[in-house]
Every structure is written in structure tokens, then in C-alpha cells.
């Protein structure tokens, strides 16, 4: 039996794809396909696959010559602009919510922590893919240091960017959060993460479609439920454009 994932469904509907994640959901048909793919993935992948399995990793010879920038490319907030002007010297990542030890880290402290480097394929909901090299801190390391509560079910990423004043955010469950390939990347292809790709850090959750890979992460929150957080769907695209929450591939 072939497991139908959302990526399979979207690629099959490639004639409907438009340029940019912010435009793809203009088609009601695409929104329906997203929902169908989500149901197949959620009911199938979680039941018949090992969610601890690793996503494929590649070599530097496989790196894509071009890696598109999707979504926002430059947050407009005055706070982010100030951080960018100082090369993120005063920026701090906050970790809190349902944890015993909330804390914050500077970019220098994140880079001094144990690191993981991986070369993986980014699969966009638009139907394109690219291979890049990422270096960053395993999210599991930070959550363990914070002593995440046994009641926490999800990890929410609050970001510096927005769409027409609506804050951007995303979320994953603890299975993906504790996965060894889920990292907060500060380096891309051995260079500091570019602003267009989410500087100073972005989430890499390698077994999920690209819109789950939140950019411009400012704050991480452990929560029991997604209800009451913005639109309650678990992410900006989920709240406003019909994307489904689970995006496993």
C-alpha cells in the first residue's frame, strides 16, 4: 500500500500551484487537496511509521545551487530592525510556558551549545524542493534544560514577522520537538543564516513540509493546548489559509 502524503497530493495538483505560499490557497480546490492530504497523513503516518525515524541526509555534493526564500523576507517590526542593525548582538531567545526553568539565551550562547549539522531536503507546499546544510542547537536540548512539564503537549514558536499586522507563529508536538533532527538553525551552508531565510534562527523540523519550519523565532512556549493561541489552529497558515496542522512527509 502506498501512503498518500500531503506532498504527493500537492504535486499531483501541480497545475493549480501559484507562486508563493501566500497565494497558493487562493484556489478552493487546493485547500480541499490540502485537507485530504492532511487526513491521509495524520491517520496513516502516525499509525504505521516510526516517528523517530530520520529524514534522509545528503552530502555537500548534493547541495542545491539555489534555495528559494519563501514567506516573509524581512520582518517590519522596529524591534527586529534594531536587532538586525546590531547584528543580533542583543537578541535573546526566550523559552518558557509549561516548564520548570524558563530561561533565555543570546545568539552567542546558542552557538556555544552542543550543535548538530545536517544536510537535508526542504519540501515546500508549492511543490518544489531544495537541499541545504543546516547547523544549530537540537531543540530537545533546550527543552530538557528548561525541564518541560509532563502536561505540555505542544511547542509553539512565536516569530518576529507578521502578515498585515497578524503575528506569525507555528507549532509542533513533542514527538517532533524531541526528534534528533529538529534543530534551531543559525547557520546555512556554513554561513550565518541570511535574513531572508529567518535570521538569527529558524526552526528545522526535517520530516515536515516547509511551512512548519518557522523563521525569525523569538520565543518558544510549551503549552498543553493550542486553543486560545491566536486563531487556535496551531499556526498562521493553519488559522488563515486552510493549511492543516500536521504536515508530516
What distance lies between the first and last C-alpha atoms, to the nearest angstrom?
16 Å
Task: Give the % helix.
Answer: 25-40%
Mean pLDDT: 86
Point out poorly predicted stretches: 1-19, 27-45
Main sheet strand line-up: 2-1-10-5-6
Short description:
Pfam families: Oxidored_molyb (PF00174). The chain is of the alpha+beta class and 249 residues long.
General description of the model:
With 249 residues, this protein is of the alpha+beta class. It folds into 2 domains: 1-49; 56-240, Oxidoreductase, molybdopterin-binding domain (Sulfite Oxidase, Chain A, domain 2, Alpha-Beta Complex). The protein contains 8 helices and 10 strands. It has helices spanning 6-12, 21-24, 28-48, 78-85, 107-112, 139-146, 174-177, 236-240; strands at 92-97, 103-106, 116-123, 129-138, 154-163, 166-173, 183-188, 191-192, 202-204, 217-223. A 5-stranded mixed beta sheet has the order 2-1-10-5-6. Strands 3, 4, 7, 8 and 9 form a 5-stranded antiparallel beta sheet that branches. A hairpin with a 2-residue loop joins strand 5 and strand 6. It is globular. The two termini are 16 Å apart. Residues 1-19 and 27-45 have low confidence and may be disordered.
Amino acid at each position: 500500500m502506498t501512503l498518500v502524503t500531503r506532498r504527493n497530493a500537492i504535486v499531483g495538483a501541480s497545475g493549480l500551484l501559484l507562486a508563493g505560499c501566500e497565494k497558493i490557497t487562493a484556489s478552493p480546490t487546493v485547500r480541499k487537496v490540502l485537507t485530504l492530504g492532511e487526513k491521509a497523513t495524520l491517520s496513516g503516518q502516525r499509525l504505521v511509521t516510526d516517528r523517530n525515524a530520520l529524514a534522509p541526509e545528503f552530502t555537500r555534493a548534493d547541495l542545491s545551487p539555489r534555495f528559494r526564500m519563501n514567506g516573509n523576507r524581512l520582518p517590519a517590526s522596529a524591534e527586529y530592525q534594531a536587532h538586525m542593525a546590531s547584528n543580533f548582538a542583543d537578541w535573546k531567545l526566550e523559552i518558557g510556558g509549561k516548564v520548570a526553568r524558563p530561561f533565555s539565551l543570546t545568539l552567542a550562547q546558542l552557538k556555544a551549545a552542543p550543535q548538530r549539522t545536517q544536510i537535508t531536503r526542504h519540501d515546500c507546499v508549492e511543490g518544489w524542493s531544495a537541499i541545504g546544510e543546516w547547523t544549530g542547537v537540537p531543540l530537545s536540548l533546550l527543552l530538557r534544560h528548561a525541564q518541560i512539564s509532563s502536561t505540555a503537549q505542544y511547542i509553539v514558536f512565536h516569530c518576529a514577522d507578521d502578515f498585515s499586522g497578524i503575528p506569525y507563529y507555528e507549532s509542533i508536538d513533542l514527538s517532533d520537538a524531541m526528534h534528533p533532527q529538529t534543530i534551531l538553525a543559525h547557520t546555512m551552508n556554513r554561513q550565518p543564516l541570511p535574513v531572508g531565510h529567518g535570521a538569527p534562527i529558524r526552526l528545522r523540523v526535517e520530516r515536515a513540509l516547509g511551512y512548519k519550519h518557522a523563521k525569525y523565532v523569538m520565543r518558544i512556549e510549551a503549552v498543553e493546548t493550542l486553543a486560545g493561541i491566536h486563531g487556535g489552529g496551531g499556526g498562521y497558515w493553519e488559522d488563515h489559509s486552510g493549511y492543516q496542522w500536521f504536515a508530516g512527509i
